[in-house]
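Subgroup meeting minutes
Present: P.N., E.W., G.H.
Scribe: E.W.

1. P.N. recapped why we're keeping a running log of single-chain structure predictions: easier to compare across weeks, and new members can see raw inputs and outputs side by side.
2. G.H. added today's entry (628 aa).
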Amino acid sequence: MCGIFGIIDRKDKINITKLQEVSKILRYRGPDDEGYLLASPDGKSCKSYKGDMSPQSLDLPHIFCAYVGDNIALLHRRLSIIDLSDSGHQPMGYADRYWITLNGEIYNYLEIKEELLKKGYGFKSTSDTEVVLAAYSEWGEDCVRRFNGMWAFAIWDNKDNSFFLSRDRFGVKPLYYYYTNFIFIFCSEIKGIRSYLNDSLALDVKQVLRFLDRGEFMEGESEGSLFEGIRQLMPGHNLTLENNNLKAYKYYDLKIVPNRNKLSDNIEMLRSLFGESIKYRLRSDVEVGACLSGGIDSSSIVSYATSLYKKTFNTFSATWPGESMDESFYIDKVNHKWNCVAHTFKPDLINLLETIDKEIWHQEMPLSGSSLLAQWFVMEQSKKANIKVLLDGQGADEILAGYPHYIITYINDLFVHLNWRELFAHRRELAKKDYRILSPVKTQLYNLMYRGKYASFFPIRSGFINLYRNTKKYIAPSQFNSLAELQKYEIEKNTLLPLLHIEDRNSMAHSVESRLPFLDYRMVEFCINIPAEQKIQGVNTKYILKESMKEFLPADVYNRKDKIGFATPLEQRYFGPGKEFNGFAVDYILKSEFWEMGLINKDYLNKHTPPNKIFALYSLARFINNWF
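Output recorded in log:
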């Protein structure tokens, strides 16, 4: 897990000082090593260098000695996870032609390596990075279809004078780029590009309106970012740059092919795929721990992995004693059952406003809510315990229909596909939760009459709303008649990508690698195609996961009916009416550059404004002030 940066400048030579500044900015993504490659477009000059943070044993010249006449550069900040030796140093070369800077892990690299060895390929390291280079040499751009993992990488072909960039199927790892007629820059984080361009990027007001309209910045909704000129390479996409011709294209599409197997068969298959996914994600030359919230997802990972692979986990959990969202009871049950080394802690909130600013810096966007901070504290504890890799349950809700709003589409799905027997069997429990058996009829009529009409999270002034609304593509869950289609939409365009963005930034801010067993692409493809009635039964979401893990989970965790997630009491405790930071936050908002933009109604802020909206607006104001 690392930080990557690259540039080709057709107008000016590479600025070594700026390159080193980018390296310092990305240090937390890879504190174990730093490497550089400088090259010329004609291929006559191509040389690698080490930096201040490189091991003394690394036999390379220091970047200070670099020739300043080159137009191409690669930069790598390394968090050493696989092959801890100097031979894992990047940028890494192969066959006197290809050079790579890679962020992420290719979990099935051993299987691919074995295949390449049979084809006559040789290897100097035990790293997955070298396997990627050899795979590219053998299969070209199609090599990524063989990878099982999370990645964002760039390969410079010194012979063809071309770049090849790729991002993993679901966007676990980030990749941003900036492109004009003269310059192409890519980086793991926007701040690296911004630094090289002398902090000259402007705020994209349309993206601010997206935040105000939805109450959060939906990272995957478009290629754009909050910074003008900065685009992200979308998940499941490759990008090529050759002869100043840039082309991005999709290499992966999540297919919907309904699975009609009976429940017992699908439970067996789910267990098999889940076990294989966990096995891959335990491959590491350093200790692998786990996040543990007490919910079904993280508890399943810890319980099943311990049972299958006889591993003793270091687990990390944030608790909120005395609060309704505290999950200590369930966390303790899992830790006790599997003899985990528990790191259970109550977050220190003394420097809350300072922590919010740190989050805004690392997230490169305003915070939609305080739940991000809970994960921040977990990753912080992992770093203190010197655990560099954590398994986490992100993605389970999207692939196994865990959110309450999926129930609406589940009802639609059963109704439209004439599965009325299933619908009728759960009518009473659905009615108790205000899901009526005839609600699909009302939903369809509502969709016809009011499609696309809904209230903004904040009251955006009428003169500004169309700047965003005319291009937005948000679709409400009630508009789907297929549960699988809704899941595909939320995986590719809606809920998952913002969560992955947060996961990456919170973990990398503390030099921790986060691995997500539920997002093995084979798991995703299988789970979304499971019949709706096996994923949800009445109001019981993620039904098949619970049944498949029943014999491994503590009974109290298996029988849980509530869903909390990474919730915190911070907004209600500190930003509610009359609370400690409420007056300060409102005063700051009203004096901020954001408020001067006049995007929302002037009379909106008052003592009755909900704490979560005060928190979000304060975060937005701080983001604009800190970044622009």
